[in-house]
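Reminder: ligand-aware prediction takes two inputs, not one.
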Amino acid sequence: MLSVLLVAISLLISLLVAAGIRTIAIRSANTPTGTSPKAPIPGLPDADLAAKHLAEAVSFPTVTHRQWKHDDKEPFLGLHRFLAETYPLVHTKLEQLDAGALNLVYRWKGSDSSLEPALLLAHQDVVPASDAAEWLYPPFSYQVHDGFVYGRGSFDAKGQMIALYEALEALLTAGHMPRRTWYIAFGCDEEVRGTEGAAKIARYFDSTGIRFAFVLDEGGVVASGFMPGIEWPIAVVGIAEKGDANIRITCTRDGGHSSTPDNPTALGILGAAIWRLESGRQAPVITTPVRMMLRTLGLHASFPLAVLLLNLWLFKPLVLLLFSANPTMNALVRSTCTVTMAHGSDAPNVVAKQAEAMVNVRLLPEKSTDRTYRWMAKRIRDKRVTMEVVADAVRSKVSRLDGNSFANLSEAIRTTFPQTIPTPYLMTGGTDALWYEQLSDHVFRFTPANMDNGELKRMHSRDERFSIGNLGKAMEFYMTLITQDSLSV
Ligand SMILES: [Zn+2]
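Here is what comes back for the chain with zinc ion:
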């Protein structure tokens, strides 16, 4: 017995030693790149003035909702007029293209037609603010306080949109001539799946045969305190996003009067099915974007954590256990199911003849809705409950990191946010970028702003805001990206 124990202990020690040696070897072969020595960009716009422009842009309630059919165009048209007045050079020196609906698309012609163009994105629309009375300041009004622009859309994504306009106007004022051709597009309905916005713009580009060297949309941010053991801020760049599907589950029974119930009711059976769904989780998978993220973090983490992250061959179960403990991290390694809507009868004294619930499914990249459908059926295991896919997911493809695109983007991030580590990762939410994946192998999702959890929680919620400091950083980032690209291609 003792000898078995001794063999087990010595085996464990040898594995740990092997992992340690391997970690040192990987880290010495991939010396982390330091901060960029580049000089700051000249001619940066005044951030306080830009904040005023952002506050004005926020005051146009460009809200989209599920049944939105362009019925209220006026806020969008008002925003367009404001942008044309505020950024005259963008609207006279760049070519404005008609990609349908309320979309805004520009083309800035470069001097070297042998280079593939690039595409920069943000969106004009915002989610509603139904709890407006509870906001610190009215969500659709001009509000600049204590270094922040407040209001719906100030962060998602008008902050990014205004930063782009400011950067373009400043570069045009300075007489900058890009080598590469740049396209800039702002869709009108990102918050409701982008079918009028990004989908139409992407079709327009596709019909003209344009392919992009890279596409950059909103996405991950610069986060500090991302993980204990990593002291530097991390810039997470989405290289794929999770798929978004809806599956309806339904139970049909005899209805009747609530005074003479025949339990279980349709709603009771459905409730039990929901409980069984929620008490299980699909098997975890480390997909390519997460594997790449773990490797980048491993190169920069303190030693014990680095051994863990760089030796998945040994520590994968432990890493998955750590991810599973936190809902945000768990979503990176699992396809998830969330029950979001339910309906029974329309009156308190009527037993529902039919009860139904909607399950929102978020799929890991390269995984199909079918797989989750089968998992759900197994969990529910009740023939009285039927299932129907009402909206299937568009599957995101994982962007490539080879070539100059990701390297140039990382360089612009390091120049603008010194001491920051750019890393690939998986977006758990959806973006317009999905629609452009057919037009480029290099589609990235990154919002150039410093954000902690407290700030992120305001997005799509109460008291959304964007700091003037972040607005300055975002402008600097875009100017760096556009001018550096002209130097280094
Ligand atoms: Zn957004």
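The pocket of zinc ion is lined by residues 123, 156-157, 190, 218 (CB under 6 Å). The domain at 47-240+397-488 is CATH 3.40.630.10 (Aminopeptidase). We will return to this case in the review session.
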